[in-house]
Design a protein that fits this description.
Pnp Oxidase, Chain A
Length: 120
Amino acid sequence: MPIPAEIRGQRYISLATFRKTGVPVYTPVWFAEENDKLYIMTSAKLGKTKRIRNNPHVKIAPCTIRGKITGPGFPATARILPPDDGRRVRRAINAKYFLARVPFLFPNTDTYVEISVASS
């Protein structure tokens, strides 16, 4: 499914991952758009990565830098990418966000995630 117009071109999205109890955890993230998919970078040690491994169903919504949701949410599926795809995703994120190019700001970024918006 294509990226919804409410998400396309935004600076931040709220990524809701789900605990084993079903409780959502909302995190504002940077993302890149490519071929009707969204891509984020993170650390393998963070909770969102562990929650995605346990449950690939996520919810995305446009948001502010502080995570205040500013539009409708959309169900989606997240997939942790193999390490070989990391360079491509990192280039796309670096092109969108200047600060992503500063290596010491994100020293533990070692995991890249592909997000596909679910069909309604």
